[in-house]
Each structure stands twice: as C-alpha cells, then as structure tokens.
Amino acid sequence: MALVLGRKVGEKVVIQDDQGREVEIKVIKGEGGLKHSLKLRISAPQEFNIIRGEIYDGNNS
C-alpha cells in the first residue's frame, strides 16, 4: 500500500496499527529552493524501530 500526501508546516499524519498504537509524523520545518527539504518529528511507541531510509536500504541489500 502506498499513499502520497502533501503536508504543510504544522500538519501531521497519524499511522495506527491494528492494536491501536500510533505513529505520528509532523512537518515542523520546510525549506524551498532547488533542493526542497523538510524536517519531520516522528513520535512512536518505544517498541517501534525508526530507521532512516539510507540506513534501512543499506542493511537490506
């Protein structure tokens, strides 16, 4: 499953599993220019692993 969203600074997305645990992803800063970048705040229960994509991809090749 994939979902593509546009979010503005201050907006968030909440992901909930079947046990009711939630992961909240909130945009806290956005920068324009040629390279668009965002700062995200991710809040999740301690038992969730949060891994940056470049590290995750490197460990699963």
From TrEMBL:
<dbReference type="GO" id="GO:0003723">
    <property type="term" value="F:RNA binding"/>
</dbReference>
<dbReference type="GO" id="GO:0006402">
    <property type="term" value="P:mRNA catabolic process"/>
</dbReference>
<dbReference type="InterPro" id="IPR003751">
    <property type="entry name" value="CsrA"/>
</dbReference>
<dbReference type="Pfam" id="PF02599">
    <property type="entry name" value="CsrA"/>
</dbReference>
<dbReference type="InterPro" id="IPR036107">
    <property type="entry name" value="CsrA_sf"/>
</dbReference>
<dbReference type="GO" id="GO:0006109">
    <property type="term" value="P:regulation of carbohydrate metabolic process"/>
</dbReference>
<protein>
    <submittedName>
        <fullName>Carbon storage regulator</fullName>
    </submittedName>
</protein>
